[in-house]
Amino acid sequence: MIDTHCHIDLYKSPLDVIREAEASHTHTIAVTYLPSHFQMAKVHLRGHKYTRPALGLHPQATKDHEREIPLFKALCAEEDFIGEIGLDFSAGCKASRSEQELSFETALDCIKDRPRFISLHSRGAEDCVLGHLKRVGVTNAVFHWFSGSKSQLMRVVDAGHLLSINTSMICTAKWKEFIQLVPHDAILTESDGPFAKLGSRPGLPTDMSIIIQWLANSWKQPPKDVEGMIVRNCHRVEPLKGFIT
Asked: pTM of the predicted model, to two decimals?
């Protein structure tokens, strides 16, 4: 099982989540909001085989970006797992649009030099995120919890990017339609816990089997074939090859 986007540090009991992911051999990428959070995650996750931290600069944390960007620049020189970065132009975040774009441009300029795993936030800003990626020549990025339109979805896929889906997404009519439109080799799995839910509880890395079964039903394929496809899709992103074998 592979969880490409999980906010482990935001659960009530992060260590329990880590232990469950490790015990179940669920490869989990622990995205972060800020570089200082990444530094703490790296300490706590040291020695764990199946859980890997990602360096983040979240668009909803712009008030901290001026202080944190120098640290992002310093850390990204040696980090190949990046997330969560991107833009959020939803109603509650529009006021910081200019600051977000400046931070996102800065982050992309820092990480465009080589293939990396990049998990993207794009709510209400799908076309803008795509435009920034095109500007710097970044491909094979992962749009997590994509919530844009059908035409935007196809532009993301046509540009060569991937999409990661969670248990909240698979409960929507929108994604019952969208999953038939996206090429199978462009899909990854994520929990986005603790934000995405499974029933009344936060999603967990160990829930990936539920998404695999949903994909199997949607694509009319055996779950084992879907599992193999998700692994192959991960291998489209260079840094994931060494993490997920």
From this structure: 0.95
- Give the tens place of pLDDT for each residue, 142-155: 999 999 999 999 99
Instruction: Domain of residue 231: give its range.
Output: 2-243
46-70 exposure pattern, b = at least 16 Cβ within 10 A, e = fewer: eeeebbbbbbbbbbbbbeebeebbe
Q: How many CB atoms lie within 10 A of CB 207?
A: 22
Count the Cβ atoms, other than its own, within 10 Å of residue 4: 32
- The total domain count for the chain is 1
Q: Which two tokens stand for residue 165?
A: 């889906």
Count of alpha carbons within 13 angstroms of residue 31, beta-carbon side: 28
Residue 218 belongs to domain with CATH number: 3.20.20.140
C-alpha dihedral, 209 to 210 to 216 to 219, nearest 10°: -130
Three-state SS letters, 35-50: HHHHHHHHHHCCCCCC
